[in-house]
Write a structure and sequence with these properties.
Layout lengths: L17 H20 L10 H8 L5 H23 L5 H37 L6 E5 L5 E4 L1 H7 L3 H4 L4 H4 L8 H11 L1 E9 L5 E12 L5 E10 L1 H28 L1 H27 L5 H29 L7 E3 L1 H18 L3 E5 L7 E3 L1 H20 L7 E9 L5 E8 L27 H11 L3 E6 L5 E8 L7
Parallel strand pairs: 7-9
Antiparallel strand pairs: 1-2, 1-5, 3-4, 4-5, 6-8, 9-10, 10-12, 11-12
The structure holds adenosine-5'-diphosphate (ADP).
Length: 484
């Protein structure tokens, strides 16, 4: 296994027991006895190298040198006891070979100790971070669990290591484990929010970042995940979203109040048509020879008018309804179609010419249709109000939609007017809450528009329009397949 996966939690580094240490001492003594009191013609003292190597796992660097020194002394002592005063080249060479073997082994064991120490230092560095860092092997079993993980989840490393992470933390994943692992293998990383259960049973929301670790040949060997508890943040966000939805609802209802005249007209017109067609049907029926063909045509017109009125009412009820987001598929052109009947009357009353420049093949987009209708109504109503102050020039409202397909794919809706206009420098100020230049203005419309658009991952911007007026643009990104 590659070295970086050998990270071991400090709690896993255990000193060998006393039996192990005693066995090493017995081995050293046995080597000495065999070397000194038997007449084997082999370099028995070479075996001291094993003693040195084995002791490296529980002594430090100085201890290692000490063990090595003692082994060398014992080698020399055995030689002196057996061959002292006589000169034989064979035993001397064997003793020298043994001393060399002990020396080389000491050197290698010291290097190995140093490398292990280095790794262990690096591993304990990970304990300094507040993040929970967890390493898993490819089967999902935990192999490393830092102090941050212990503090966050409550399990000690020795309790967590060897367990499957998803079982231990009873993880609830935002997507299937297979699809997350697919992404991880494709990009070498993944991030998202998970729900985990702590040792005391409390559930937390964890922002989690996973990185895939590969060995030198590129074969995946494990996953490192870094987790942070974002439960409080999520709760605050939810509360804020609730407030935002509440405020958006209030603003929507007050916009509807402003639009009462248009709405009344929009509903009244089909109702009047129903009455006219009803009367016509009666006339065709009351003839000496009833004309059933004409009656059928009138009744069909009545049905169509009735449907139109009920469509408008349904749209109004949706706008006035209280509630948080509900996603559906629609296009920017659908939005324009949705809102025009509601603002038609205001446009007419202010003698505004409307030009539409709609994308021929609008891309479908997924979001909260009612909230985005509110954004477009706000932009159009602001445009109408900005043009109400312009008496001497043509009042023109242009609404355009288009797809952006190069680079960042997005759908775009633009509302441009020829009203009093805005300054390029202060264009961003308009979106701040309570910014208004109107006597009866609340200054919340554009701020709510921005939070709705941003909650959909998009942007809204304002700029001066040439030769006069202002232009507002909403840009909503088209997510990649599989992301929402
Ligand atoms: P309110 O309409 O209550 O003032 P908004 O947030 O909708 O609140 O608008 C904030 C301000 O932005 C307006 O008071 C106005 O000064 C400016 N504004 C918005 N739309 C336009 C526009 N189309 N042309 C010129 N100024 C605009």
């Amino acid at each position: 296994m590659a070295s970086h996966m050998q990270l071991t939690s400090p709690a896993r580094v255990e000193s060998p027991g006393w039996i192990y240490q005693a066995a090493i001492i017995v081995a050293a003594a046995s080597i000495f006895l065999v070397d000194t009191f038997t007449s084997l013609e082999t370099a028995i003292a070479v075996l001291y190298a094993v003693v040195v190597f084995a002791s490296a796992s529980f002594v430090d660097r100085r201890g290692l040198l000490l063990v090595s020194g003692v082994c060398m002394l014992m080698t020399v002592a055995s030689y002196a006891i057996v061959h002292g005063g006589t000169w034989h080249s064979g035993p001397l060479i064997r003793a020298l070979i043994s001393l060399c073997a002990i020396g080389v082994t000491t050197f290698l064991a010291a290097k190995n100790q140093q490398a292990t120490q280095h790794l262990s230092d690096q591993a304990s560095l990970l304990n300094l971070t507040h993040d929970a860092i967890i390493v898993r092997d490819m089967s999902g079993y935990i192999t490393y669990w830092n102090l941050g993980a212990e503090q966050l989840y409550g399990w000690k490393p020795e309790e967590a290591i060897g367990r499957r992470m998803t079982d231990l933390l009873e993880s609830t994943l935002p997507a299937s484990l297979e699809s997350i692992l697919d992404q991880l293998h494709e990009n070498d990383r993944w991030q998202g929010e998970l729900i985990h259960t702590k040792r005391d049973g409390t559930r937390i929301v964890a922002a989690s970042r996973w990185s895939l670790h590969r060995d030198a040949r590129g074969k995946p060997i494990g996953t490192i995940s870094t987790n942070n508890d974002v439960t409080d943040q999520k709760t605050a966000e939810d509360a804020l979203n609730g407030l935002r939805a509440e405020l958006a609802h209030v603003a929507r209802v007050s916009t509807l109040g402003e639009l009462t005249a248009s709405i009344a007209h929009e509903v009244n017109q089909p109702l009047a048509a129903v009455v006219v067609n009803g009367e016509a049907s009666l006339r065709w029926l009351n003839r000496p020879e009833p004309d059933l063909g004409e009656v059928r045509a009138s009744v069909e017109r009545m049905i169509a008018s009735g449907r139109r009125a009920s469509d408008v009412v349904a749209r109004l009820r949706a706008l006035a309804r209280k509630g948080t987001t509900s996603r559906s598929q629609f296009t920017m052109n659908d939005l324009v179609e949705d809102i025009l009947p509601l603002v038609d009357r205001e446009i007419l009353r202010n003698s505004i010419a409307v030009s539409l420049d709609l994308e021929r093949q609008p891309l479908a987009w997924s979001g909260d249709r009612v909230q985005l209708q509110q954004v477009v109504i706000n932009l159009v109503m602001n445009a109408v109000q900005a043009m109400a102050g312009v008496a001497d020039q043509e009042r023109r409202l242009s609404i355009g939609t288009r797809n952006l397909v190069d680079g960042n794919r997005a759908v775009v809706l633009q509302v441009t007017d020829s009203g009093v206009g805005i300054d390029a420098e202060t264009a961003n100020e308009l979106f701040k809450p309570f910014y208004t230049t109107k006597n009866d203005g609340m200054g919340m419309g554009l701020s709510i528009c921005r939070s709705i658009v941003e909650a959909h991952g998009g942007t809204i911007s304002a700029s001066p329009s040439e030769p006069r007026g202002a232009s507002f643009e909403i840009r909503l990104p088209i997510q990649h397949e599989g992301h929402t």
